[in-house]
Structures are given as structure tokens and as C-alpha cells.
Specification:
The complex is a heterotrimer.
Chain A: H1 2-32, H2 40-78, H3 86-124, H4 127-133, H5 138-176, H6 181-191, H7 194-221, H8 227-257
Chain B: H1 2-29, E1 41-47, E2 58-61, E3 64-75, E4 80-87, E5 99-104, E6 111-116, E7 128-130, E8 132-134, H2 139-155
Parallel strand pairs in B: 1-7, 2-6, 5-8
Antiparallel strand pairs in B: 1-4, 2-3, 3-4, 5-6
Chain C: E1 10-21, E2 24-35, E3 39-43, H1 50-57, E4 65-70, E5 73-74, H2 80-87, E6 90-93, H3 105-116, H4 121-134, H5 150-161, E7 168-172, H6 180-197, E8 200-205, H7 208-214, E9 217-222, E10 225-230, H8 232-236, H9 241-248, H10 264-269
Parallel strand pairs in C: 3-8, 3-9, 6-7, 7-8
Antiparallel strand pairs in C: 1-2, 1-4, 4-5, 9-10
Helix pairs in contact in C: 3-4, 3-5, 6-7
The chains are: A mainly alpha, B alpha/beta, C alpha/beta.
């Protein structure tokens, strides 16, 4: 019993110190972003590995999620004779929830884990130490460009996911099930609001991108510099990102859509 | 250097397609492309009952959306609902004897304001008022009346 | 306490340094001096914190007690910008080479130049090729770090370490895991770079033979203390049992072959226990 309490205390303490280290790390990384701006090449290289390499998985998943939504939505809505609202249903669920959340989860799995592994290996092979000894701040040189790239790439990826998904829903709805194409688009346009839906969805994806990239970078930077430590850190990145994304999604949804 | 150039091109393509996606969402999916609120002109109508009408509910004439509700408030003197509507400036030839009624789109759909133009020669202007209105049909009320009537018929 | 002033010609002096990690004391009040223009070796068994000493000199770790001065500046009282300025004048060769894995050899050597100078690309090219020529790997400039052998990676890292023409180079176990040929090549390189560029070198190593060939002065460290010091020839003739064991590599001596345990016979006869 006492042992359990002691363990709990220890874990609480270590998770708090980790949170503290993480926040300090974030502070340094954010203040380092200023030094990235005069060197766009650094950012461009990271946009490639964070954005371009996630492009395929995001668009393909988006297409399929949209198509499934189209099918399921059609079957459910046609029971009420409301197939015309398929566009609204597909677009609302994608733009508000599935676009930001699913693309952020995929992003954590594809780009986040890669970032953690990369930074962790750089630490394990003394590349970060080496940089420090060459009087190059690894936070400014390595971490900040990646943070910025994650922050920029995430809303673009989420936007792509939703857009491709909506088109996928339309392909199934009007192409496969013979729904009127005009109804799909016009109902959608009438019901979706730019401010309430599109902008809020984008805010969500920016928050998720920021948090996921932060977790990925910090887990890598904080990893025990052995191959086992790095592989554990990679797992933690995916798990912690998923938890944070879903938890934050609830909070953001409550804040954004609660009043209406 | 060849390597970095293809990489740059791909980054460019990625950013361009991401922005295109966001534009698609803004213009094709949402209502951003329909007129913005600031350009339209305002007209008000008083209803005995506004039902489930909300701010941003559509205002249509002959089934075409021509504006949206911008404000609903309760008049403490006349005990009526005052609905302010924002109408697209394209449609500036609504007669001043237009009738406004609150309808429901489909059986379970949301409520909207329907404007039925009258025959007058003069048109509604900004801050104009619609005098002839029909309140929202409240389902419970209608059902109640129907039941009451059929009970009366039976007893006769 | 050793409060003696460092010798006049000393570039790095360590005074009364104590450092512990957790409850384990790694250094216990040691004082060392590293002379300008000389190769000084720090030797000792693995796990005695030799690498830690280099990190302390480079300002990556802070001592619990004591001071380290490099070229007249107390490393741990410098502000960040001053520390970085000092680090530009110190090259460090890591055990693994620590090459940046996402760049080829050429870009690795050019890295410090691009980060710290505003030289034109053609100027950088000249400098990089000169440094690569010095380590004999000018032909390998287009290879990626994962295509290099361990010895080559270390030589490239050496070329990178001298890119900014430092005053001092710290070598962390430069000979570990090398075949005899590349070991010899590295030893030769360290010696010749030290002489031609007028560098000061600090080598941390447990390779007795190679290190005593090139070092001008040797410190032997064990369990946080300096056990012996002197020129390589003096060390070979040392009367200290410990130094003799270390220099000759005897299995048993002051450093025991057996991890502390209870009596062998008793242990074998006490049955019924799991361990």
C-alpha cells in the first residue's frame, strides 16, 4: 500500500518535471523560430519531410473516409428520405471533426514518429552534442525549423483531407448511388458557414499540428540516447499525440460549437 | 543540386495543393461565396410567433435564397417577434406589400422566412418594414386545433 | 587542496574539480594542466568519466565544485554567447564521429563554415577541399556518412573539427574499435596536425600503445582521482603497481579480475537459494 503510494508520488513528480522540461523546451524552440526566418532553406527542407512525405497517406485516407461517409450517410439518410442532405452530412463531419482529427492522427503516425526517431537518433549518435560543440545551437538549427514546418503543414494537410473527402463523398453519392449532384453541393453551401465550420476546423488543425510536433520533437530530444530509448520515445510520441489530439478536440469542440 | 530542385518543386506543389484545398473548402463548400452581410440592405418584419427561426436562417423568395436573418428580438410593447433580415442588394425590387411567412423546409427541416411579392409599384428600401406577416406554424398548436375540430365534428 | 597557479604555458587548467552523477562520484577534487602546443593524454579504465571530462571542458556539463579555465576564461562563468565564441575555437572529435547523417561528406565539413562565416561558396569549397586533403579523403567528398567506415568517419569528423582553425582539439577515444591500419593513420594524423597547425590536443583514451606513441604527457585517472602522471617513458618505468597493471594490461592486480563477491567455496556449497 505504502509502496503503491510512493510509486504514485514518484510518477506524479516525474511527469510534472517532464512537463516542465517540455515547456522550457517549447519556449526555446519558439524563440528559435525567429532565427529560421532568414534561412528559408532550413524550413523548406523540413516542409518536404513533414508535408510532402505525408501528402500521399493524407489524400488517400481522406478519399476513402469521404467515400465511406458517403455510403453510410446515404443509407442512414435515405431511411428518412433525406438523401439530399448527404452533402451537408459529409462536409460537416469532415470539416469540423474528421478532417482535423484524423489527419492529425495520421500526421502523428507518419511525420511525428519520424521526427522523434530522427531527433532521438541524432542524440544517440552525438550529433546534437557535436553541434553544440561546434557552437551551433541544436534547438535553433534542428528543432525550430521542424516546429515551424509542422505548424504550417498541418492545416494544409487537414484542408486537403477534407477537400478530397468531400469529393470522395460526392463520387459515391452522385456517381454510385445516383444522387443529384446539384443538391449535394447546394445544400452543403447553404448549411456550412465559413466562420463557424471552415475557420474553426482550421484552428483545430493548427492546434493539433502544434501539439503533435511539439510532442514529437520533445520526445526525441528527451529520449534516452540508446536504440531502445529511441524506439520507446517513438511509441510514446504516437500514443501521447493521439491522447492529446482527442482530448483537445473535445475541449475545442465544446468551446467552438457549444454556444449554438 | 538536382536533388534540392526536385525537392523544392515538390514542396511548392504540396503548399499549392494545400492552399487549393483550403480555397475549395472556403468557396465551394461553405457559404463564403454567397453575398457577405455588409453589402445587403435591411428589412424588418413583425411576427406573432417566430417559431424555430434563428439568426442566419435563410430568407427566400419563390424558393431562391435571397438573404438571411440577421437579428431576432422580442418587442416588449406589442409582444411580437421583430425579425431583421439582410437581403442581397441584387434583389432590390421587392414590392412594399410583400408578405413574409415562416415556413419549414420539409417535415423535419429548419425554418426559413418566405417572402411573397405583392403587386405594389413601390419597392422596399433599406430599413423598410413588411406589414403583412404569417406566423410560424407550431406543430402542437396545429395538432391541437385539428383534434379539437374532429372531436367537434364527431359530437355533432 | 591544490591552489597552485597553473603553469605559464597552460592552455586548459582544471582546478579541484568534483563532479558526480546521481550518487556516484565521477571526479573527486582533481587538478590537471594541459600545455599549449602539446598532446596530453588522459588514460584510465572504461567508465572512469574520461568523456565526461571533455564535456566539462567544452562547457556542456557543469561541475559540482572547482573550476576549469580555457585560455584564461573560466568556462562555467561565461555567458552563453561567450561560451559559443569559445567553442568556435575548440574542435571536438566524438567517439562516433557525430557526422550529420542527412548530409554528405562535403556538406559536413562545410557545415561549421556555413554556420559561422559568411564566406562565398567558392571560398568554402577551397577550404573544405584543403581540410579533406589534410585527412586524405578529398576523393570521398560525395559519400554519405553511412557509406563510410568507422575510421573514415572519424577522419572526416577530424576535417570538420579543424574547419574553423581551432586552437585546441579534444579527442574522445579516437582509437576505439579501429583496425591497426586506420589506428596508425589516425595517430599519425593527430600528431602531424598538432605539429603543423600548432594545435593543443587533449586525447581521452584507453589504448595504451597508440596513445603513448604520440602523447607528450599522460595523466592516468581511476575512480575519480589522478593516479599517476608523467611523460610516456616515465609511465613505462613507473613503480606504481596500478600504472604497471594498466600499461601492461595484466588481468589481475590492484584492479581485481573478480567483481566483489563472498567466498567461492561457501557460495557453491550454500544450496537452496535461487541465486
Amino acid at each position: 500500500m505504502i509502496n503503491n503510494l510512493e510509486n504514485l508520488g514518484k510518477q506524479t513528480r516525474s511527469s510534472f518535471t517532464k512537463l516542465g522540461r517540455g515547456s522550457f523546451f517549447l519556449l526555446q524552440a519558439v524563440s528559435g523560430t525567429l532565427s529560421v526566418l532568414p534561412r528559408p532553406r532550413l524550413l523548406l527542407n523540413q516542409l518536404y519531410s513533414v508535408g510532402v512525405l505525408s501528402f500521399l497517406i493524407i489524400t488517400i485516407s481522406g478519399l476513402f473516409v469521404g467515400m465511406v461517409l458517403g455510403l453510410q450517410g446515404y443509407y442512414t439518410l435515405s431511411a428518412f428520405g433525406a438523401e439530399e442532405s448527404l452533402g451537408v452530412m459529409v462536409a460537416t463531419s469532415l470539416v469540423r471533426e474528421l478532417g482535423p482529427v484524423v489527419s492529425a492522427l495520421l500526421f502523428a503516425g507518419r511525420a511525428g514518429s519520424a521526427l522523434t526517431a530522427e531527433i532521438g537518433l541524432m542524440k544517440a549518435t552525438e550529433q546534437l552534442s557535436g553541434m553544440e560543440m561546434m557552437a551551433v545551437d541544436p534547438i535553433k538549427r534542428i528543432i525550430s525549423p521542424r516546429l515551424l514546418a509542422g505548424l504550417l503543414a498541418m492545416p494544409l494537410l487537414a484542408g486537403l483531407f477534407s477537400a478530397v473527402g468531400i469529393i470522395g463523398g460526392e463520387l459515391v453519392g452522385s456517381g454510385l448511388l445516383g444522387l443529384d449532384e446539384g443538391a449535394y453541393w447546394s445544400q452543403m453551401q447553404a448549411k456550412l458557414d465559413f466562420q463557424d465550420d471552415i475557420v474553426n476546423g482550421m484552428i483545430k488543425s493548427i492546434v493539433f499540428g502544434f501539439v503533435t510536433t511539439w510532442i514529437a520533437l520533445f520526445e526525441g530530444y528527451d529520449a534516452i540516447p540508446t536504440s531502445e530509448g529511441v524506439s520507446r520515445a517513438t511509441t510514446r510520441t504516437v500514443v501521447n499525440s493521439a491522447f492529446s489530439i482527442l482530448g483537445l478536440d473535445f475541449i475545442l469542440t465544446a468551446l467552438m460549437f457549444g454556444e449554438h | 543540386m538536382q536533388h534540392t530542385r526536385t525537392q523544392d518543386t515538390l514542396v511548392g506543389l504540396f503548399v499549392a495543393s494545400g492552399i487549393a484545398g483550403l480555397f475549395f473548402l472556403s468557396l465551394q463548400v461553405s457559404n463564403l461565396s454567397s453575398f457577405s452581410q455588409h453589402d445587403g440592405y435591411m428589412i424588418t418584419a413583425r411576427f406573432e410567433n417566430a417559431g424555430g427561426l434563428k439568426v442566419k436562417s435563410p430568407v427566400s423568395a419563390a424558393g431562391v435564397k435571397i438573404g438571411q436573418v440577421s437579428n431576432i428580438h422580442f418587442d416588449t410593447k406589442t409582444y411580437e417577434a421583430v425579425v431583421t433580415m439582410n437581403i442581397d442588394p441584387k434583389y432590390n425590387t421587392l414590392p412594399d406589400d410583400t408578405t413574409a411567412s415562416i415556413f419549414t423546409a420539409g417535415l423535419l427541416g429548419e425554418q426559413y422566412v418566405n417572402l411573397e411579392p405583392g403587386g405594389s409599384e413601390s419597392y422596399l428600401k433599406d430599413k423598410g418594414k413588411i406589414d403583412i406577416t404569417q406566423p410560424a406554424i407550431i406543430l402542437e398548436k396545429a395538432l391541437g386545433q385539428f383534434l379539437f375540430k374532429s372531436a367537434e365534428e364527431k359530437s355533432e | 587542496m591544490d591552489n597552485s597557479a597553473p603553469p605559464l604555458n597552460s592552455l586548459v587548467s582544471v582546478r579541484n574539480l568534483s563532479f558526480s552523477r546521481g550518487n556516484k562520484k565521477i571526479f573527486d577534487d582533481i587538478s590537471l594542466d594541459f600545455e599549449r602546443g602539446k598532446i596530453t593524454a588522459i588514460m584510465g579504465p572504461s567508465g572512469t568519466g574520461k568523456t565526461t571530462l571533455l564535456k566539462l571542458i567544452g562547457g556542456q556539463l557543469c561541475p559540482g565544485h572547482g573550476a576549469i579555465t580555457v585560455d584564461g576564461q573560466n568556462v562555467h562563468q561565461l555567458r552563453r554567447t561567450e561560451l559559443y565564441k569559445l567553442r568556435k575555437r575548440i574542435g571536438m572529435l566524438f567517439q562516433s564521429g557525430a557526422l550529420l547523417t542527412d548530409m554528405n561528406v562535403y556538406d559536413n565539413v562545410a557545415f561549421p563554415l556555413r554556420e559561422h562565416t559568411h564566406l562565398s561558396e567558392s571560398m568554402i569549397r577551397t577550404l573544405v577541399l584543403m581540410k579533406l586533403q589534410a585527412v586524405g579523403l578529398r576523393g570521398a567528398r560525395e559519400l554519405m556518412p553511412n557509406e563510410l567506415s568507422g575510421g573514415m568517419a572519424r577522419r572526416i569528423a577530424l576535417a570538420r573539427a579543424i574547419a574553423l582553425d581551432p586552437m585546441m582539439i579534444l579527442y574522445d577515444e579516437p582509437f576505439t574499435g579501429q583496425d591497426p591500419i586506420s589506428m596508425g593513420a589516425l595517430a599519425h594524423l593527430i600528431k602531424s596536425l598538432n605539429n603543423t597547425l600548432g594545435l593543443t590536443s587533449i586525447i581521452v583514451s584507453h589504448d595504451v600503445h597508440e596513445t603513448s606513441l604520440i602523447a607528450d604527457y599522460i595523466y592516468v585517472i581511476s575512480e575519480g582521482r589522478v593516479i599517476d602522471q608523467g611523460t610516456p617513458t616515465a609511465m613505462q618505468q613507473s613503480t606504481s603497481a596500478w600504472t604497471t597493471q594498466f600499461m601492461t594490461g595484466a588481468a589481475d592486480g590492484p584492479v581485481h579480475f573478480h567483481y566483489p563477491a563472498k567466498d567461492y567455496i561457501d557460495d557453491l556449497l550454500s544450496s537452496g537459494k535461487r541465486y
